[in-house]
Write a structure and sequence with these properties.
Elements: E1 5-6, E2 13-14, E3 18-20, H1 25-34, E4 39-42, E5 57-60, E6 67-71, E7 76-80, H2 85-94, E8 97-98, H3 110-116, E9 132-138, E10 144-148, H4 153-159, E11 168-175, E12 177-178, E13 181-190, H5 191-204, E14 207-212, E15 218-227, H6 244-258, H7 263-272, E16 288-290, H8 291-294, E17 303-311, H9 315-328, E18 337-342, E19 357-365, H10 371-383, E20 387-388, H11 398-404, H12 408-418, H13 427-433
Parallel strand pairs: 3-5, 4-5
Antiparallel strand pairs: 1-2, 6-7, 7-11, 8-12, 9-10, 9-11, 13-15, 13-16, 14-15, 14-18, 17-19, 17-20, 18-19
Helix pairs in contact: 4-12, 9-10
Bound molecules: flavin-adenine dinucleotide (FAD).
Length: 436
């Protein structure tokens, strides 16, 4: 039987011999032991890179989901690895807990988000992987390894961001915090002003980020602040349920595909709908939500994306250069840039390893080619010592990556020890790790 697996953007496709859906850790271990290589574990396929692509076996943990238990004093929770971040929110909330930070969407499996160093924004806040306190890993030979700061600490340091290359996480212990509410404010601000005030805005707000359409003189600032105000419930759209704004944006994308000269005016128009930002201004006075409902946006207009993490203090210069390049390179695009802060951590392959960072994301509508656009901005990121998001498009391989990650060799040693036969490596990961 032929199976087809596709990622969210539709640009990565795989035709594995089998797709396995174990319902327990024991079943998972038996499957990994017997399965035809390369064995790749999928979350919900939201990575843009071919991390999951295989002609062998794809394993999904969608039946290994739910919270196992929690510690109300330490604010930790043991979570089955296939739980989606969306399902996890209410489960933690019912236990009086919330994740310290989240990214733009919550469709990912927890282990998928952890596996690539998925992050949100916040000067002092780390990525989702940085909040991992421990995990259970099913290794290529079907063995089980417990890893945390005390037990197998090298597997813990290597495994928190490891793209399913050390084994398959069956369970993750997350360091959470007491449940909390967030109030969203924001609006349009002149780009020059945002760029001159980024550090002040970062330090004054738990979560600060901005979006910038490179042809616009205004950026859209988004701020989430912790509040004691009473949160309102949020109606979540079903996957692919388009909002009015989504429809307008798709129309703009399709229009500029055929009429590129309209992208400047359209980018200005799309920015102008936001209202001016002034400190404490509300985008919508109803926007006080519990954290798990406040973080995620619905991203229903499909795109491909490149994102690099650069040293935090170089972020403003880097985004200025990226935007200038995009305006003059002649490639057609419409989507905005996104600028976020992420705190340093100590996972060996984390893009934020020992470095407070700014992440800059470049998006391209999924029906337009991205290669030339991304190649141009990638050269700029390289000059800023950028480290790529593992789930987003980039062209780096072992030779370049080993220079960006001080613990690269230590990571490879742990990986080779746990998977000496390279059963978990697909051709893409072999290139990434320099294994041939
Ligand atoms: C619309 C959209 C918005 C996004 N927003 C953000 C954002 O705000 N911030 C950000 O940082 N990223 C963002 N991303 C990227 C996304 O969070 C990452 O690519 C994430 O890894 C996807 O999770 P997933 O569950 O889809 O995993 P997949 O893409 O399916 O897999 C990701 C990696 O995790 C591994 N993996 C999955 N399950 C396990 C397991 N049980 N054990 C070990 N390894 C495992 C896989 O093998 C693979 O290497 C976004 C992506 C999209 C499409």
């Amino acid at each position: 039987m032929n199976y087809v697996w596709s990622n969210w953007s539709g640009w990565v496709k795989a035709w594995p011999k089998s797709i396995a859906e174990p319902a327990s850790e024991e079943e998972l271990a038996a499957i990994v032991q017997e399965a035809e290589a390369p064995v790749r574990v999928a979350g919900t396929g939201h990575s843009f890179t071919p991390l999951v692509e295989t002609a062998g076996t794809i394993v999904t943990l969608r039946h290994i989901a739910g919270v196992i238990d929690h510690d109300p004093t330490a604010f930790t929770a043991r979570i089955k690895a296939g739980t989606t971040v969306r399902d996890l929110g209410p489960m933690l909330f019912d236990r009086g807990l919330g994740l310290a930070n989240q990214g733009d969407i919550d469709r990912q499996a927890l282990a998928g988000a952890v596996g690539t160093g998925t992050h949100g924004t916040g000067g002092g806040l780390g990525s989702i992987s940085a909040a991992v306190a421990g995990f259970r890993l099913v290794t290529a030979d079907g063995g089980i390894v417990n890893a945390n700061r005390d037990e197998n600490p090298d597997v813990f340091d290597a495994g928190r961001v490891s793209m399913g290359s050390l084994g398959i996480m069956s369970e993750i212990t997350m360091q959470c915090r007491p449940a909390y509410a967030l109030e969203e404010t924001g609006g349009a601000m002149p780009v020059a002003e945002v760029l001159s005030r980024v550090e002040e805005l970062r330090d004054a707000n738990r979560h600060f980020e901005f979006f910038w359409f490179p042809y616009a003189d205004l950026a859209i600032v988004k701020i989430l602040a912790e509040t004691d105000k009473q949160p309102k419930p949020r109606r979540r759209r079903a996957e692919d349920e388009l909002s009015r704004d989504d429809r307008i944006f798709i129309t703009a994308c399709e229009t500029t595909r055929y009429a590129p000269f309209l992208r400047g005016p359209l980018q200005k128009y799309l920015t102008s709908g936001s209202g001016r930002y002034s400190s404490g201004s509300l985008t919508d006075p109803g926007r006080v939500r519990w954290s798990h409902e406040a973080f995620p946006s619905d991203r229903n207009v499909r795109f491909n994306e490149m994102e690099y993490a650069v040293p935090a203090d170089r972020g403003p210069d880097c985004i200025r250069e990226v935007a200038a390049h995009m305006r003059k390179c002649g490639v057609n695009f419409l989507f905005p840039l996104e600028f976020r802060y992420v705190g340093a951590d100590d996972a060996w392959l984390s893009p934020f390893y020992k470095r407070d960072s700014v992440t800059i994301s470049v998006h391209q509508y999924h029906r337009q080619p991205y290669e030339e656009l991304f190649a141009g901005v990638e050269a700029i990121f390289a000059r800023y010592e950028g480290r790529p998001h593992w789930g987003k498009l980039h062209t780096l391989e072992a030779r370049e990556l080993s220079k960006l990650y001080p613990r690269w060799d230590d990571f490879q040693a742990v990986r080779r020890r746990l998977d000496p036969k390279k059963k978990l490596l697909n051709p893409y990961l072999k290139r990434l790790f320099g294994e041939f």
